[in-house]
Amino acid sequence: MNRRDFLSSACKIAAFAGAAGFVNTAYTQTETRPNIIFILADDLGWGDLGCYGNPRIKTPNLDKLAAKGTRLTQFYTCGSVCSPTRVSVLTGNFPARHAIHGHFASTDQNKQRGMPDSLDPAVQTLPRLLKSAGYITGHIGKWHIGIEDASEYGFNEAKTTNGGGSDAYAMPDGYQAFRNNSTETFTDDAVDFINRHKSSPFFLNLWYLDPHATLEPSDELLKEYEHLRVSEKFTGAQQIYYSIVTNLDRQVGRLLSVLEEQGLSDNTIVIFSSDNGPEDIYISNASHSAAGSQGPFRGRKRSLYEGGIRVPFIIRWPGKIGAGEVDDTTVMTTADLLPSLCRTAGVGNYRPVDGEDLSHVFKGKEVKREKPIFWEYRFPDYSYHINRSPLMAMRRGNWKLLANPDGSRIELYDIKTDPMELDNLAEEKPELTETLFTRLLKWHKSLPEGEISPNAGSNGYNWPETLNR
Predict the structure, then answer these.
(1) Of the listed 98, 139, 144, 288, which one is catalytic?
(2) What region holds the Sulfatase N-terminal domain (predicted)?
């Protein structure tokens, strides 16, 4: 980065971080710095893994990863769709600060939504910070953070789909043909990256496309769930979706085996998560396969209810984090990964971010969160009406408030006692509700301007009496 870019970056980051000073996470470290692999599934629900209670989908390798590591039950994405979550991982900030309100699409659609065509490459990013500290940094798989080269964000190496400029994979037979075998391709390339950089500390994003629609599993994959076939003529949504998730699990297992064979397991932090809740059957490209599970929660992808933003989070670091542990206490988000991993990796200075340093989780300790979490989704939700949330939400402590900016649909839940968000306590606790709503609205008004769709935050239904008017 040249001097002009550095100064531009510093000014932009200071503007939205709310502070001009640096956070110093440097510490004396006698041990070798750990490798870090962050595996991100696409549209995988909180309840899609055996280790998160699913009784039907076979995920033996991820279950084994959980048995050797720790599961967080209160891990949140900072967006209810793809691009915002990915931006929060890279920047440590709530994505709306960067005017990333939804997924990146065409230039015209981005402009209509008040969004850029890419995250600004000059912003502070996790890979750039790790790279400056001596890490070899790589990104393999789905990008969806815009059209700029992924390598411009601090990666030594990048191979991408869904954007990423000149770092994108060649797809001579088209996108769908590529993505049908992409899980194997990404794993192959991840194994190659690990083998080439096993002597250096490395950071690798391995971001899969599966189980995002459109899903076209091979006959071989479908055999695993032949008992779920609807008829001789038709497969069912469960057979299609489950076979893809099991194959994803199989490829993760292959990667973990390579770490073991290379003697890297003990000094490699492996994290597995998802970018948002499961897709809904009303979305046309998922209408044959939307059998993902949000577990016991209300809401799916696009919703700010728990099912849209609470996802699996498994972390393994042998000797540092307990095996087979379940952390029901720590409330963590994708924005917390930057400060937490920087602390863990011994990275020196970085500018303040929205995320919180919860790195003690990586040492097996439960942590009480200090900072509130904020969300927004400005566009329609196509799910069942019970899943359609207001367009803003925040969580502070055990309390979660959802509301629209005009003050409609104010909902207050005690997530500890009511994780399904069924008992709205807004009227019973008016002072707390007012305090949280004021804070949430102030945050919302501080964001860059952008389109808010007319039906955003609505759960309205065409009741029979309205059809006769």
Answers:
(1) 144
(2) 34-347
